[in-house]
């Protein structure tokens, strides 16, 4: 059986423009969420994490672009350029490109946006990224709600295993926009304070923006030191409701069971969980049920939404990359915002960032449309 | 030895006409999408009361998928759809509701449909499918990734069958082309055949 690895990676976020800056911020338990009052974006106060336009502009200018790009494209280009450069890979016809996003350049629909409205077509976003770096294969844009990021990694693995590509760059990103904020606010799901996943005093979600990228490869030479093997992954629908999570955690439970079986592991082999944890009551409760059904209630678990907010189509990719660094540094990262359990079934939420030898982690995500994805990663053995 | 998979059935909804395996099953003089698809819902005896609350893309996807899944007992069916406009048709409606401060009325019932994969959720609910969903967005119809992806799912035994295809709806322009890939069927599952069916059905 061929193995597939996640190797070089980058995170462009409110913490800075590389993964190290984000990991350092998390280790210090600093959130990059800020309270914002911008009537143009939302009539009420909200809390979000953003990538600063001025500093992004500087990093983007260094890429010497020959045409204008949107804010999202700049985030993705800056992130992917760093990952490609670190990998030293030549972009041959064996290298694929997968883009994970829910809304892409949705901000171009705003009347004052200078870009043509046609830029909102996700295929155009894919083409802009492909063209900039000169990928020989067309971009595959995956838009599967909040599981997009983890599913994109899973899909990269499958394309590699069946011989379509030898390597795939996966890049994910979404924006904090009026479009998104007004929608989640209409659901009364937005919090005006930093979010508190699984906590009794949770007040809803925050939206965040990042551009993030990773190299998925079957080659074992020249791997990044934090590389992991993707052991197993699965994705199952709840077949229950398009906006409300299943009361039995059905799709998530089935995804976890299938990912464990594929990894030839049982629940006891999982050292920690990077869960979805949006900090809405319905989501957190659904996850608690699914993790209990899977026998994972005692496994140390966090949600990283308390640091970045919910970064939508990027979140699964972002949180997988943080998980890779958690394994590499043998450190369990605290689930920021959590104090007292606020779900009906037991969970072992990590309260304090703690050093601990860890080898494997489970990443899960769930989203609108009833979709769920679970993936299991293992540290690459020290050479 | 690579196992050969087959196209078990296919359907098309385009230009006021619905066909199943090449034969017309519904035609209408109605040129507007919403009245057209409502008429199709009734004529084709599709049972899903939530139909009337769904956005246009989900209505198109539900009618098309129901033609292929209606009499199917197999439930381990993965769903892999693609299109050009993602959910832009509904995105524009949500955008309109937030554009002006004086007419600010964002609605959760509209916002929830601003993701293309919601139509996969609707199909999963209707047919009780706990299987894998994936939604890709391309600049135009592309058989290659769909064929590779479906072959992979079947070969890795992730599903017994795969419902695949193109599901595009954009400002009254609609084009649905769906097919089921399985071990047995009427045509060999190949890029050439998929392209041919898309061009001619």
From TrEMBL, chain A:
Coiled coil feature spans: none
SUPFAM superfamilies recorded: Thiolase-like (SSF53901)
UniProt keyword Transferase, yes or no: yes
Bilayer-crossing regions: none
Claim: Transferase is one of the keywords in the record: yes
Lineage: superkingdom: Bacteria
GO MF terms, alphabetically ordered: 3-oxoacyl-[acyl-carrier-protein] synthase activity
Domain Ketosynthase family 3 (KS3): 1-379
Pfam entry (one): Ketoacyl-synt_C
Similarity comment text for this entry: Belongs to the thiolase-like superfamily. Beta-ketoacyl-ACP synthases family.
PANTHER family: BETA KETOACYL-ACYL CARRIER PROTEIN SYNTHASE (PTHR11712:SF347), POLYKETIDE SYNTHASE-RELATED (PTHR11712)
Protein name per Swiss-Prot or TrEMBL: Beta-ketoacyl synthase
Organism: Pelagihabitans pacificus
From TrEMBL, chain B:
Full protein name: 3-oxoacyl-ACP synthase
Organism taxonomic ancestry: Bacteria, Pseudomonadati, Bacteroidota, Flavobacteriia, Flavobacteriales
